[in-house]
Amino acid sequence: MSGPSSYQPSHPALKWFEQRLPIIGLVHSSFVAYPTPRNLNYWWTFGAILSLMLGVQIITGVILAMHYTPHADLAFKSVELIVRDVNYGWLLRNMHACGASMFFLAVYIHMFRGLYYGSYKAPREVLWILGVIIYLLMMATGFMGYVLPWGQMSFWGATVITNLFSAVPYFGESIVTLLWGGYSVGNPTLNRFFALHYLLPFLIAGVVVLHVWALHVAGQNNPAGVEPKTEKDMVPFTPYATIKDFYGVTCFLIFYSWFIFYMPNYLGDADNYIPANPAVTPAHIVPEWYYLPFYAILRSVPNKLAGVIAMFAAIIVLVFLPWLDAAKTRSNKYRPLGKQFFWIFVVVCIGLGYLGAQPPEGVYVVLGRILTVLYFAYFLIVLPLLARIETPRPLPNSIADDVLAKSGRKAVATAAVALVAVASLFAGSMGEARANEGTETPPSVKWSFAGPFGKFDRGAVQRGLKIYKEVCSNCHSLNYVAFRNLAEPGGPGYSVAQAAAFAADYKIKDGPNDAGDMFERPGRPADYFPAPFPNEQAARSANGGAAPPDLSLIAKARSYKRGFPWFLIDFFTQFQEQGPNYVNALLQGYEDNPPHGVTIPDGSYYNKYFPGNAIKMPKPLSDGQVTFDDGSPTTVAQYAHDVSTFLMWTAEPHMEARKRLGYQVFIFLIIFAGLMYFTKKRVWAAAH
Amino acid sequence: MTASTADHPTRRDFLFVATGATAAVGGVAALWPFISQMNPDASTIAAGAPIEVDLTPVAEGQDIKVFWRGKPIYISHRTKKQVEEVRAVPVSSLPDPASDQSRTKDGHEQWLVVIGICTHLGCIPIAHEGNYDGFFCPCHGSQYDASGRVRQGPAPLNLPVPPYQFVSDTKIQIG
Fold it and tell me: Is A437 a residue whose pLDDT tops 60?
């Protein structure tokens, strides 16, 4: 993309083609012969990582769209069916959901790198502004994508974010109605969000082409921030930058796979495993981690319109950055004050992210306001001022001089450490927001399915199934579990015949028959567990006004606050068992006499682990209620353990397959990363 | 990338080849989930389980259409005349030679069970139509006899017989 190509095809057929459409020459001049500064560090590989993530998101997204149903009544179910029934559906969904987080993580690193090394300065202003446009498009795409599973957070996130536009004077309400296509968030909203979520990534890809074009016109910036002078300053893109980018990508894939295979729900919110309910708002509405800093800015401003303006201004200010920072020196390496303020700014952004996940009360509000002021001060006061008062350190004469002056290569280690630290900080701050008023934290149980090699205890799953059948199923449905699942690998371990016999014990409503009547027949493996009540109203009225929740996903739909530093440790220990811990504790948390001073309304029961302590479900299990053939103790503790194990399996029937494939992928990626490291070293040996 | 020649294999060559080969293996393996997801999912496979059909309501000369795996299955209760006619046809004279005996179950020769999808381009033939007292496809005029064998028109093959068996004299299981 930078002038006429030096590419000379030798084959006559290629020559013929090249004269008519010089596309090979274009690729050759842009990605092969293109000169790239020889002193680029690993922070520069995030451009390639972002291209990869855009590709992964588009490919997995197109595939998910093949199986997804954009309808308010079916969307949640269709996502569950993707995860449960489609071949490798769980993998594709995890790749896409975690991929969004990885995309944003990479883009933030990419942006901070540009900020640190002054990559937005002349002649790269347009390149930078195109990047800001990509970032805005990404935010819109990510938000609409999060709405599609149509869980509680999807629904309420959509409601809150679209309501931002109601702050517009005079037209606010009309704009919001226009966005919704109705009087509230509903099916039309979901449909248009799906269409736009499919469209926007291709717009992003288009702007990325412009971004790369602008990059190749201006040339890449580099850590020294001096323009290349001679050929000695440069190396050809291929093989030098290509191999380095591939190595960076491979390392990033290891990090990404950690989430896909071992922590798929670490970055998500448990509430999104509860189907959208327009009548109940979750206790704490928290956006995905990548929006948290802006969410914090929004909430820091007490006026509605001003808050919305501040939030958008926090992004738009980036557009003006090339003119706000008038310093001649690009790289903060040579700006003693600029460097310090940069790191303060990074801390401010992470701090805002942390505050965005906290409840908007007390000290958090004050801190939020301080950090909001600091955020804007960096762009509007610090950077313009520094340009006048700062004395930069002398710049190296050339890039080649910079390379010679370099000591060691600690960039890889720094990159990896920073990556993990930033990710876990952001992600962990998410978990902080879980509600936990006046209830005890469930004790952590040692689960057979925990950890990277965890497997379900077959006996426990079978006993849990028996308890569900004899006790829980009187009130709770299990809508997403079919009898055939009982014979699938990684579950209770029944044979196909056993599952069929189990199914045949149930009466399933079918029809209409030839006479137009509904009839009952014995269950088949393809049938789903029948629900105890025909509809939610019946369930509600039979249970004192509280409909017993469906249990299929309960082990993923319940969580509790982990707190600092546990959320950081959880990232490394792969702790994911809040749900089963909670279910296990809840079933044992009943006390006949509530503690002194606690009053429980009539028709409710005291449970020390239930949020608010007053639960409508009476104590469901007592010692000796269910008998076991395998001699396991018939105690409430054993029942609670077994039911929790069973419900973890119903929530994630392919967990064993996920962990097994993860193990294989990790072995592969570590070997490959090692090979790539040595290959990269070998290729670069000539250049250093 | 492999700049040196094959005559002088070096450690550099080996490293590059090993890295390239590993990348190729990983790339191909990573493709599999993206292809495999196109196949029928577990619920579709489960819904394609065998079905049982009660034959008692089907009188002689009548036929019913049931669906199995989304495909229409014709179950014809053939008359004696139809059975005699199709069995009298010399097999070698047919475009797709097959005897009626091979297309029906012994002792139940009055029952014909065929997948009602024209072997030409997938339209559904109409029962009891055409010149052979069998099936007539309205799309491109293919004609099948009462044994579901193609007799005339562009269809290359007979109507396929789905896997089925008699559970009792009046009940069959398809699949």
Answer: no
* A contacts of B33 (beta carbons < 8 Å): 87-88, 91-92
- Cβ distance B41 to A671 less than 8 Å, yes or no, reads no
The closest CB to that of B46, out of A59, A63, A526, belongs to A526
Nearest chain A residue to B66, by CA:
A514
Supply the DSSP string of A246-296, one letter for each residue: HHHHHHHHHHHHIIIII-TTTTS-GGGGSBP-TT---SS----GGGHHHHH
Q: What is the mean pLDDT of chain B?
A: 90
Catalytic, B77? Answer: no
Residue pLDDT, tens place only, A117-140: 999 999 999 999 999 999 999 999
Token pair listed for B40: 């029928």
d(C-alpha A576, C-alpha A62), whole Å: 29
Residues A156/A165, Cβ–Cβ less than 8 Å: no
At which residue do the structure tokens 């479900």 appear? A617
Within a domain: A56 = no
Range of the domain at A560: 458-481+528-653
Judged by CB atoms closer than 8 Å, whether chains meet at B22 and A67 is answered as no
Instruction: Kindly state whether B33 is in contact with chain A, defined as any CB-CB distance less than 8 angstroms.
Output: yes
Average pLDDT score over residue span B56-79: 93
Q: Which CATH fold would you assign to the domain B46-174?
A: Rieske Iron-sulfur Protein (2.102.10)
Whether the predicted pLDDT of B5 surpasses 50: no
In a domain, A208, yes or no: no
Contact B37 A63 (CB under 8 A): yes
d(CA A605, CA A599): 10
pLDDT-derived band at A283 (thresholds 50, 70, 90) equals confident
Q: Does B36 touch chain A (CB under 8 A)?
A: yes
What mean pLDDT is predicted for residues A133-160?
96
Q: In total, how many domains does chain A have? A: 2
* B40, closest residue in chain A (CA to CA): A86
Chain A residues within an 8 Å CB radius of B23: 672
ipTM of the complex: 0.87
Which of B22, B35, B37 should we substitute to test contact with A (largest number of A Cβ atoms within 10 Å)? Answer: B37
User: Could you give the C-alpha distances from A564 to A155, A351, A444, A569, in angstroms and in order?
Assistant: 29, 14, 16, 9
Mean pLDDT of all residues in chain A?
92
Which residues, 6 or more positions from A612, have their beta carbon under 8 angstroms from its beta carbon? A437, A438, A439
Identify whether the C-beta of residue B113 lies closer than 8 Å to the C-beta of residue B164: yes
Distance from CA of B8 to the nearest CA of A (A): 17
**Interchain CB contacts (distance < 8 Å): A and B:** 69
The pLDDT value recorded for residue B13 is 84
Residue A85 lies inside a defined structural domain of this protein: no
Distance CA A583, CA A563 (A): 19
